[in-house]
Amino acid sequence: MIPGSFSYHRPASVADAIKLLSSLGDEARPLAGGHSLIPMMKLRLASPDHLVDLHGIAALKGIHRDGDRVSIGAMTTQHELLASDEIARSLPILHETALLIADPQVRYMGTIGGNVANGDPGNDMPALMMTLGASYRLEGPNGAREVVASEFYQGAYFTALEPGEILTSISIPVPAAGHGYAYEKLKRKIGDYATAAAAVVLTMSGGKVASCAIGLTNVHETPLLATEAARLVVGTSLDPATLKQAAAAAVAIMAPAADARGPVEYRKHVGGIMVTRALTRAAALTK
Ligand SMILES: Cc1cc2nc3c(=O)[nH]c(=O)nc-3n(C[C@H](O)[C@H](O)[C@H](O)COP(=O)(O)OP(=O)(O)OC[C@H]3O[C@@H](n4cnc5c(N)ncnc54)[C@H](O)[C@@H]3O)c2cc1C
Fold first, then answer.
1. 15 — pLDDT class (breaks 50, 70, 90)
2. Is the pLDDT of residue 94 over 90?
3. How far, in Å, is the centroid of ligand 1 from the Cα of 125?
4. What is the pTM of this model?
């Protein structure tokens, strides 16, 4: 299908983008890689009158290590994440997850900012950002603010972004040296969104889990942190009984929609399996 008509704007600075979005109001949307927004417009699920293209804003690009955090500009593409030595070194789970998104064509255009700001429960980066304890810098007509990823998602396609605000960068604490990590994603085929996926970041000490965070993708209307499941594994050696309890605790908070990827019970069941696999693989990496 062909999208409805719209006016195109290409500001050169964050300040100009905010001015445009504020003055054009509800009918204006930021455009990043366009690989979620344009398909929605083609399906007429979104019909913005104005697109504010962020590609002309150099300040929204780049990956920088600053002490114990990595800062990523919102317009950094998924391909650029994969090509970055800093990401491979400091945040290998981000590299692993980006590689599981769609296909090279989508990753050349799709941005990390668009992926996390979109609010689609099927996007892979939001649950990962929650698992890593990331925060988002939002800039708008009333200035700048930081929102932690775990407080950003309010419902399917509803986020903490206020009118006129854009997400300008993401700040991620670098996990401890020697940490274990895994992003396990079940999808029907290459290029599909997750039927269910789980992110795990953990540390081990003396054969026992010392710290753990677990995030879940596409098993609820928002990404989830499985805090009870993570609590259950801390202090254990991840024996089979503990793995089973942790998977059950994660499944208990899942509420996926029944869709072409399967009925609710199936998606919860495979969600539990993704948690078990991610925990097991993350722990094995620390040995
Ligand atoms: C065939 C196909 C398969 C895909 N499979 C997956 C997959 O498996 N996993 C996955 O995670 N994604 C998948 N995607 C989506 C892809 O990763 C998108 O690129 C991503 O979701 C959105 O990023 P974008 O840069 O394209 O954003 P856009 O499509 O340009 O924007 C998405 C939304 O975010 C808003 N927005 C964008 N940037 C900002 C900003 N800086 N501040 C505020 N609001 C902003 C826009 O207004 C829009 O509402 C797939 C896409 C396609 C076409």
1. very high
2. yes
3. 10
4. 0.97
| Protein fold of 180-285 | Enolase-like; domain 1 (3.30.390)
CATH number of 61-173: 3.30.465.10
Q: In the predicted model, what is the mean pLDDT of residues 171-176? A: 97
In this structure, which residue's CA is closest to atom 12 in ligand 1?
123
Distance 35 CA to ligand 1 centre (A): 5
What is the Å distance from ligand 1's center to 32 Cα? Answer: 8
The string of DSSP codes covering 165-190 is -EEEEEEEEPPPTT-EEEEEEE-SST
| Distance from C-alpha of 131 to C-alpha of 224, rounded to nearest angstrom | 9
CATH code assigned to 7-52: 3.30.43.10
- Contact 168/190 with Cβ under 8 angstroms? no
Amino acid at 252: A
Of all atoms in ligand 1, which is nearest to the CA of residue 123? 11
Closest to 123 in 3D by CA, of 76, 179, 86, 78: 78
Distances in Å between the alpha carbon of 84 and those of 26, 64, 189? 36, 10, 26
Domain ranges of the chain: 7-52, 61-173, 180-285
Question: How much is the average pLDDT of 20-32?
Answer: 96
Atom of ligand 1 nearest to the CA of 29: 47
Closest residue CA from atom 4 of ligand 1: 102
What is the position in ligand 1's atom list of the atom closest to the CA of 39? 53
CA distance 126 to 66: 22
Assess whether the C-beta atom of 33 lies below 6 angstroms from ligand 1. Answer: yes
